[in-house]
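Researcher: Sequence recovery benchmark, item below. Answer with residues only.
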């Protein structure tokens, strides 16, 4: 049934899903989710330099998407153009663009992923900042 009590073939959608998702909005939420990945990376016993480089490439791409705010219908083309603009050394950027595209498609198709991101991407891996005490023992 629809909101007015009449029969409808479409299910009622939550208000958050009724508003069109924009790539910039999703990418802003993905930037926040990267914090958990960074906490996990720092706790690994192995050399994580490559992880750090990949995460930085992804974070830079996400920030660029937030600034450019491409239309949802043009997002795939925007990503392709961005990779082409990178030139011959586009491999790492292309890999991250594919991941971002997959995350975009996931967010478009499932509410659970969107809700998890909108909730701040809660994770046990996120680092919790410790409070620092000054010389008198007071927390700052």
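Model:
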């Amino acid at each position: 049934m629809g909101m007015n009590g009449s029969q409808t073939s479409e299910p009622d959608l939550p208000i958050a899903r009724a508003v069109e998702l924009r790539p910039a909005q999703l990418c802003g939420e993905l930037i926040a989710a990267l914090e958990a990945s960074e906490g996990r990376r720092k706790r690994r016993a192995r050399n994580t330099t490559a992880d750090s480089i990949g995460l930085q490439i992804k974070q830079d791409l996400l920030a660029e998407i937030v600034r450019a705010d491409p239309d949802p219908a043009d997002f795939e083309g925007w990503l392709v153009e961005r990779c082409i603009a990178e030139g011959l050394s586009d491999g790492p950027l292309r890999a991250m663009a594919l991941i971002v595209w997959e995350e975009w498609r996931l967010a478009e198709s499932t509410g659970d992923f969107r809700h998890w991101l909108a909730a701040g991407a809660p994770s046990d891996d996120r680092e919790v900042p410790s409070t620092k005490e000054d010389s008198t023992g007071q927390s700052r």
